[in-house]
Amino acid sequence: MEHEYDYLIVGGGMAADAAAKAIRAADATAGIGIVGAEAEAPYERPPLSKALWKGDKSLGSIDLGTAASGARLHLGRRVEALDRAARRVRDARGDSYRYRRLLLATGAMPRRLPLADDDRVIHFRTVDDYRRLRAHAVAGAHVAVIGGGFIGSELAASLAGVGCRVTMLFPARSIGSGRYPDGLATFLDDYFRARGVELLAGVKVVEGRTDDTGVELVLSDGRSLRVAAAVAGLGVTPNTALAAQAGLAVDDGVVVDAQLRSSDPNIWAAGDLANFFSPSLGRRLRVEHENAAVEMGGHAGRAMAGAGGEFTTLPYFYSDLFDLGYEAVGLLDARLQPVEDWSEPHRKGVVYYLDGGRVRGVLLWNVWGQVEAARTLIAQEGPFDAASLRGRIAHGD
Ligand SMILES: Cc1cc2nc3c(=O)[nH]c(=O)nc-3n(C[C@H](O)[C@H](O)[C@H](O)COP(=O)(O)OP(=O)(O)OC[C@H]3O[C@@H](n4cnc5c(N)ncnc54)[C@H](O)[C@@H]3O)c2cc1C
Fold this sequence. Notes:
The protein has 397 residues and is an alpha/beta fold. The chain is built from nine helices and 25 strands. It starts with a strand and ends in an 8-residue tail after the last helix. The structure holds flavin-adenine dinucleotide.
């Protein structure tokens, strides 16, 4: 079967939703199609590792309501081929979709453990992964969380919060190492341990086996660990296969210009997939966060409908860990010079990441409402030093 759309969006995630709504706002009558590999209509991904576990949100409430934009959703369909000359894509079931303008919003996929995904080994990304993990996450069940980054640490906190026995393992020295200053990373390790999470630092999973009752993990230090389920948060890689196969410029994501347009004038890219230039950081960036997906999706949608300017937003992101929470802007890289400004050590404060007199990143740790102030600071030329930064962003009450 062949479908035809003015605007076609490949990928049915958060960027796709924002784009469809923006296109509709700019063009009341255009035909908009979304082809998404997941069976669900676009939904909010962040609650999968946080709010759904705390009961702050229900599964029914994370739907983004994309259908209200009038976009037609083709769900459970993975696009396998893109023919740029014919302006047509084809899905795995053989249906094809012609377009006038195309948005690639295929997001990213989880990095994999050296063992197959199954009912008890979950590379966590989708609502389906949430359902599978939830089925094993009964009180007292022993669950291994592999990875000490954003997803791993959020899941460890959430699983502990529902009464699971959690062992977290990661190759680095501590949770969030490489991102936070040493003192904050050490504080976080202690904070997790105090809430019953066992930490195995400096190890990797080298192999594993699943049977009817659990998973046996073999670790790089020779130990083995038997758990009811293992969930991995090892970072993601952008889903660039389609773009690369079609000959678009790809370099850690689909390379886009200031309008978020790819190397093909009829094709845009947004969200986790897109590699864009950030004027305030003066470098290219690919951001795997909600705010980027929503802002870029909206911007690309407007641009496709002929109403785009330059995309200059520096995305922010946020996370929740037990009762800690933060927002952050720019680069959180502990190799830069972190300048810590705590009003309550490791509980409330701001960390500035300095690079040769310029601020490249700002971590707002339990400090709220200051994302714009952080963006403004990062856009400034400086020069800044530790003394001039302390106290610059207020911590609030
Ligand atoms: C558990 C979890 C928690 C998170 N928490 C936070 C947070 O607290 N804060 C924050 O800022 N960010 C968070 N993020 C990141 C945020 O959710 C992502 O940055 C955002 O979802 C990216 O949106 P996207 O539309 O670019 O990609 P995705 O949401 O990945 O959507 C892409 C969609 O495209 C589909 N697709 C891929 N290839 C094809 C194809 N060939 N054909 C058709 N469809 C295809 C995929 O199946 C997927 O449904 C979290 C992510 C996860 C997984």
